[in-house]
Amino acid sequence: MHELRPTSWPRCLLVLASPLCVFSAMAAEPATIAAGMVDQACVALPPKPAATLQFEQAFLEPGKPDMPRLLALTKDPAHIAWQEAKKARDAQDWAGLCRYREDNAALVASGHKPDIVFYGDSITENWVSGDPGLFAPGVVGRGISGQTSAQMLVRFHADVVALQPKAVHIMAGTNDVAGNNGPTTEQAWRNNIMAMVEIARAHGIRVVLGSIPPASRFIWRPELKPASQIVKLNEWLRSYARSEGLRYLDYHAILATEGGAMKAEYSIDGVHPNRDGYAAMRALANSAH
Q1: Do 270 and 216 contact (CB within 8 A), yes or no?
Q2: Contacting residues for 80 by C-beta, under 8 A, at least 6 apart
Q3: Low-confidence ranges of the chain (pLDDT < 50)
Q4: Domains within the chain, CATH numbers bracketed
Q5: What tens digit of pLDDT does each residue of 54-97 get?
Q6: Treating both helix axes as pointing N-terminal to C-terminal, what angle do 275-286 and 122-130 enclose, rounded to 10 degrees?
Q7: Rounded to whole angstroms, how far apart are CA atoms 209 and 207?
Q8: Of 73, 164, 175, 197, which has the highest C-beta tally within 10 A?
Q9: How far is CA 180 from CA 15, 33, 173, 221, 233, in A?
Q10: pLDDT at 22
């Protein structure tokens, strides 16, 4: 067993679908991508290989990680090939509109309208596997790892409004603080939150705002010290929710240490909850309905 440190992850980045390592040493054949406005803009990805699925599940397991096993999984050729194919598609789909396109079409065609959509980044995307019992019929997950609030705003119509849910649970900000799409400002993040709230209300969708979970460091941005800024942003979220009559769910208070870090028992990397972390969040999440 090894302690998880930034230097333990060669060129590692937590992005898209789950925390996965990107290795530049291997190049994949470029995917054929449509150009311009076309009827089908999305390139289908192959099924996730076993190594990728095993890595994702291992990342959710409580306790100290088996680092040699995790690193071995990321070096599996099938995993690397799948990751490269995904990178190629994502390069043409900044907002992630392709991620749930087929799922959304099937849900709309079924005629079933969700009670609530959980909308966010990796913490929301991993939630479906980390606590599948939360996502009973009528509860839909629409998280995309690595995304900032700007990307979430762009896909809000496709992944929330089009599904005509009764409510949406919005959790956004971790990747804004990390600067995943480059430098940004607190006001830009606030603007994106307010825009999503206004769009939801215009379509009769009730809004629940989830706090940004705690983090004292990002292994993919080790130079940042995010704990105090996350507290500040959550203070604004709470105040904004109060002024607008929205429900605010304070997951930060459940998951954080006194210093603003994620409690060690709830996460492998200090950012993404494991199964115990999601279990701790369950009662509050259930109240979003």
Answers
A1: yes
A2: 23, 26, 74
A3: 1-31
A4: 6-91 (no CATH), 101-286 (3.40.50.1110)
A5: 999 988 999 988 889 988 999 999 999 999 999 998 899 999 99
A6: 100
A7: 7
A8: 175
A9: 9, 24, 10, 9, 17
A10: 32
